[in-house]
Amino acid sequence: MEKRIGIIGGGPCGLACAIELAQKGFDVDVYEKKNWPIYKVCGEGIMPSGHEILKGLGIFKYLDQSDFREFEGIEYYQYGIPATKANFEKNKKGIAISRIKLSEALFLRCGDFSNIKLHPYTEIIDTKSLDHDRIILCEGIRGKIKSKLNLGSSINQNRKRMGAHAYFNIAWANKFIELHWGENIEAYITPITSNKTQLTILWDENKVKPRGKNYYFSILKQFFPHLSQFTIDKMDGRVSSYGPFNTKSRCIQYGRYIFAGDDLYFLDGITGEGITLSLKQAKLLSGLCFNEENYKAKVFNHISNYELFTRLSLLKSSYRNFRRFGLNLFQAFDKLFPYFLKLNDGTEELTRKEKFIIKIFSIFINKDYRPNSIL
Ligand SMILES: Cc1cc2nc3c(=O)[nH]c(=O)nc-3n(C[C@H](O)[C@H](O)[C@H](O)COP(=O)(O)OP(=O)(O)OC[C@H]3O[C@@H](n4cnc5c(N)ncnc54)[C@H](O)[C@@H]3O)c2cc1C
User: Fold this and answer.
1) Which atom number of ligand 1 is nearest to the Cα of residue 264?
2) For a pLDDT cut of 70, what percent of the chain falls above it?
3) Mind listing the pLDDT tens digit for each residue in 98-114?
4) Residue at 172 is within a domain
5) How far is CA 233 from each of CA 170, 236, 344, rounded to the nearest angstrom?
6) Where in the sequence is the domain holding 266, given as residue range(s)?
7) Domain tally, the chain
8) From ligand 1's centre to the CA of 296, what distance in Å?
9) Contact of 249 with 126, CB cutoff 8 Å
């Protein structure tokens, strides 16, 4: 059995892969250009299936109850008014946690394994120096190695999506993550502890053109005037931005290289699925112990489902009428939104009929990972 694995990138995906593989007896090196714990712009809401995988990774012994908050579902707002909301399935909860806390807990958990070697401040420029049997590329959306290997490609879309986020010393009582819809722009409110709440904005730079030093607050004022409690004086730290999100790898696996996380594919943060998807891939990688055909097929299913739901949400963002139609539908049929959440998150538990329906939709909507196009 191939035993030595090199992982490039120590974000949630890289560290989760390391823990999963170490549990299966592999020797793992993780190379990270920064030092842990690592911060990144993110909505910081993790879906129930991601929450379950984090439990399995054993990171909660390194977290206090006050380090995170569980949430029960998603609530949509339109022009400041609650439009519709959906609970996750019974007994399932998402988890809202700052990236620093998540990174720290994963990092500490890696320390429990003598077969994981962490290499901070080690940017890999050229993989020739790595003699591992397998190399898992988890560099995130700005990964340079896939371009070097000539395996990078741009995402098929005519948007230029950007994200910005900040923390606020505000206690937010809602047990749902709030998504406030605007025109080509969305605001996410995620309470991450009992007295700290974060607000992430996602927008299309081609349509919304934020300018100036205080662009984040001018956006809030212009598009979300009802969120007036999020003021500069309540901000904890500073505003950070990220984007555009426009790269993917042209394949899932190539020779000894295997892609995972955002390095493999990241279309948008609009559905809050990125970390969960990374964790699912990490689990698959270890579970299948590099039976690559299975890994490729299963990962392919995950990505095409993610692409489908993300593209549907992006349509809602770009087209007012589509958004109105979608929200009206969710209001009229109260089981529909929870069902969509289940489809979006519960890919492992879908019936054959549900999988078939998703596949049919994918044919019309997906542009990047169409069925039968595994490279
Ligand atoms: C605005 C926004 C909001 C989001 N909201 C959510 C959300 O609410 N919920 C959710 O689940 N997901 C969300 N996401 C997505 C989520 O942030 C990503 O899916 C997740 O970070 C992917 O993890 P990763 O480990 O693949 O990549 P990253 O977190 O980007 O980690 C990659 C790591 O690799 C390191 N690295 C890169 N190149 C090298 C190199 N050559 N050598 C060594 N190290 C290297 C980097 O320093 C970095 O630490 C959001 C994303 C954005 C942009």
Assistant:
1) 26
2) 95
3) 999 999 999 999 999 99
4) no
5) 11, 8, 37
6) 4-60+99-156+246-365
7) 1
8) 21
9) no
